[in-house]
């Protein structure tokens, strides 16, 4: 038998269940994420512990990235008696508006240790580049000056 050290945690869980904050397909719970730039990639990492890769759905429509996942209860036989259940179950979802400067055609997704990591390359057109300055000489010849 497990001993509870925080009596208020159980009350918080019950309030979450009664208020409907457990995720459903019509009202999914939000999953935590981190987003950062690493070199020429924009990286988004979502926490999805206990979710199988088959239960994760990633969509991009125009610039809207949508990640949905579902964590179901583990299959148990008749001899199992649940003593404590605190891990959230249900549907989780997150939508992120992506900038036009990202190449949504080349998104890479990896899932390891309960973390879904998306790497989105920065589009070539958005990377810094040098612009040549044209100059007209007295004879009408153009010279290229590097800027």
Automatic annotation (TrEMBL):
Database matches in SUPFAM superfamilies: HSP20-like chaperones
Domain SHSP: 24-136
Taxonomic superkingdom: Bacteria
Pfam families on file: HSP20 (PF00011)
Membership in a protein family: Belongs to the small heat shock protein (HSP20) family.
Name of this protein: Hsp20/alpha crystallin family protein
Protein species of origin: Streptomyces goshikiensis
């Amino acid at each position: 038998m497990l001993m509870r050290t925080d009596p208020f945690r159980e009350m918080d869980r019950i309030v979450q269940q009664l208020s409907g904050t457990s995720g459903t397909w019509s009202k999914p719970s939000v999953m935590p994420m981190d987003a950062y730039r690493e070199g020429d990639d924009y990286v988004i990492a979502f926490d999805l512990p206990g979710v199988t890769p088959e239960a994760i759905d990633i969509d991009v429509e125009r610039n809207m990235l949508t990640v949905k996942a579902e964590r179901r209860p583990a299959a148990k036989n008749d001899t199992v008696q649940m003593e404590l259940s605190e891990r959230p179950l249900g549907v989780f979802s997150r939508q992120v508006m992506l900038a036009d400067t990202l190449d949504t055609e080349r998104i890479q997704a990896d899932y390891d240790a309960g973390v879904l990591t998306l790497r989105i390359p920065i589009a070539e057109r958005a990377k810094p580049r040098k612009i040549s300055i044209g100059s007209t000489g007295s004879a009408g010849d153009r010279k290229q000056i590097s800027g």
